What does this fold into?
Amino acid sequence: HAHRARPSHAAPGLAARMAFLAAGVLTALLCLAPATARAYEDQVALSVDANYAYAQDGIPMHGAGVGVSAGIGLGDTFTLQFRGGYAAHPHSGDVSTAHLLSLTAEALYIVDILTWVPFFGAGIDGLLLVHDTTYASFEVHGIVGLDYLHSRSLAFGLDVRVGYVPFAMTRGGFSGLHVQAGLRVSWLFSRW
It folds into this structure.
């Protein structure tokens, strides 16, 4: 059966609101940052996350997802992170349910190493979309986030990934803006 794609006129407003919200939260929390330094240097992080997912075109707009990730500190300012994720976008109107699997590689820049740790970076995703049939695609994204280091072994975080799927690889796939906003729990281990 055929489905109609939604117009994409709502996406820029949502992305702008999410970016302003992330910037506001980061600014407020940075003002409260204590002076105790704590680093990700020489640490491995294993994380689980839950997120809200937004897709601009081709699949239902709103969804929810989960992910697992592993990251490694490359000095006191950079982290390399790998993530696997799943998101479900329940049917909406005449557009059927979509399931999205992703594999992600990200490079993160740690702005400051304190109890509150803001970061930003960029990544690339391989995507597998199950929606009436199976489609493969890729995405490039930017990420901004904030971690709270509860201890040297436990952190809580929030992040927003704003990605762009440049084109639908096959007819019926999705393209355009893809946003994920989520909460994360990370367990930290020494590399050595």
